[in-house]
Amino acid sequence: MKKAIILITLCLTAASCSERCFLVETESFDDKGGWVADHQAFEKIGSSYLLAHGAGVPVEDATTTVNVPGPGKYHVYASTYNWTSPWYDGKGPGAFQIEVDGNTLPTVLGTTGNCWEWQYAGCVEFRSETAKLALKDLKGFDGRVDAIFFSKREKAPSADYMSLDGKRRKWTGKTEIKNEPKADLVVIGGGIAGCSTALTAARYGLNVVLIDNQPWLGGNAQLGVTLDGVGWMNLYPKLGRLTCEVAGIHPDRKDDKATYWYTDYNGIGGIGYNAYEPKYTVPVQDARSSDLLDAERRLKDSGEEITDARELEMLKQEYIRKNTSANREKLLRDAGVRVFQNIQVYKVEKEGTKISKVIGKDLNTGELYVFRGTLFSDCTGDGTVGYLAGADFAIGREAKSFANEPSAPDEPDQKKMGASLFWYAFPRTEPGVFPKPEEIPWAMQLDADYHFKRWRSEWWWETGLELDNAQEAELVRDNFLRAVYGNWAYVKNFVPEYADYRLDYVQHIGMKRESRRLLGDIILSESDVLAKKEFPDASFTSTWTMDVHFARPENSARFPGWEWITYCTNEEPIARVFKYDIPYRCLYSRNIDNLFVGGRCMSVTHMALGTVRVQFTLGMGGEVIGMAAKICHDHGSFPRSVYTDHLDELKDCMTTGIPGTL
Ligand SMILES: Cc1cc2nc3c(=O)[nH]c(=O)nc-3n(C[C@H](O)[C@H](O)[C@H](O)COP(=O)(O)OP(=O)(O)OC[C@H]3O[C@@H](n4cnc5c(N)ncnc54)[C@H](O)[C@@H]3O)c2cc1C
Questions:
Q1: Domain locations in the chain?
Q2: Which residue's CA lies nearest to atom 48 of ligand 1?
Q3: Which of 181, 321, 355, 652 has the fewest CB atoms nearer than 10 Å to its CB?
Q4: Choice from 222, 615, 624 to test ligand 1 binding pocket (greatest atom count within 8 A of CB)
């Protein structure tokens, strides 16, 4: 009887709540206008959000139509963040307003506070069953809105964002959970490592799922990022051929006329993209990631003709990247891989020391997916799946005492390589204005003594060198924006040759170099690499030097803790090494039995990451994981057993190569 009364009370509460309040996730707006979706605060707020990323020019309204649960007066709250607050006490530049049925609510939001919070926008009266909403950007300087909450009570949702997961779905009506059929291998992360892993396993006949949180496949492989590392020094020559295919490169083509290069430059080689006609050429407009063509769309809108060779090159690179991504997707799907894009994996369930499922959220719709599997491979770069599962991990630099590494510091610290964003500016007939440094006091303040006369960034524009690039991805990106805007404010206004330039493109998703590293049965170190230590399970070959980055001292002096200009080991007295073989035991977790660890979160020290982290090497690591997954599948066993019981089979696979590969 008592149970029945409680149940009735709960039902009444739920019913009355759904009439009293509702939530609109901005990322599911019908038309995003000039706003872009951003998932970099997911680890803080459990959601993606819309960003008014206009490089100082207010972006077009995002609009949508919503169903209103019942007529009446509603209080309106926006989930937003005054993003410059970590550095600047005054009003921030992320100003926006909300429009409801054509009426703009008077409160300007996004300019105060110092964390993600629900800001009160005002009150509205709904008379009909639907309402039109618009987000109105006021500055073009990265205002952001995660969700809009309408409530008949004057009460905002909890400030404890991570506790809101279930409520968000109830308030938006997205309560359905999509249960995907169980896979032999679930790969999380669609960078070079994840794509190579998934494709290899699928070509061996495994039932494979690949999940990525971006609209394109390739992860870090974006503008200006090539596929470094070479295959011709491989211990197992057949490794790397599938990685070439994934990257859109024919492994055998080496003629001078080809648009790629394959050199022996002090032992370091590289292969550029666009190397051969990919197996499939997918019309660019059919690919998923419309935001890759932002730059081109903006140019068309402005009616300008593209004549600058540098700009043509930039656009060409965008097309190539988009086509490569579409090509990858087609290769994977043709091999039978179930590919899920725009899905953030954020929860893990375990049975004992094995992962049984990972749970992902669709970043556009908020829908939940459950992916069950026998084996999992964390190729997220951030080691997120391992982290959520309680896998042992490392972050930052190990002390010298850890592995006797000559370049390690005496004490461990949080220093690491950071993240970069690509940006460029071109001369324009209508170049517009950009604020002077004093007009944007929240940006880095550059002056005649210290600024960079440049039309684009390079790899050495890099920030987040002491931050957690996984959990603080938004902060790292925001710091980078402060640097780009601050430098441009000086260059555009005070360097005459740049007066006619316009800041046309600034990426908004950071390209990360280093986050968590998940620990395996071997943690490869600089000492192993320098000694070219021979391991019985030596598998894929690294041909890149010890390439770690450091903050430039003069940049540190001006922006301590928030550095954004770096240099690499070439300028340091660090020993070089060009060829060594990486053991298989770096490719699985030492304490989560069914978890492979691929790509830049594999089991290495900070120093060794500097050499394994290039794309060709990591792609080959993915191939080895795919082979090991096949062996596990054949024997009903788990990653460690491939070393302890089936190493000869792995060697056979590496020797004969992957079926159906170029
Ligand atoms: C600016 C820059 C320039 C570089 N230049 C070069 C170069 O010229 N040549 C070269 O060879 N290498 C270069 N590198 C290094 C190289 O690009 C990377 O080390 C490599 O691409 C990493 O591949 P990955 O697959 O391990 O990870 P990533 O490329 O980081 O891919 C991981 C993927 O997982 C996704 N993901 C993360 N978390 C989740 C989650 N929870 N749920 C779902 N998906 C998730 C990410 O969005 C991403 O798509 C460069 C790196 C940077 C940052």
A1: 20-157, 178-283+303-414+516-543+578-656, 420-512
A2: 219
A3: 181
A4: 615
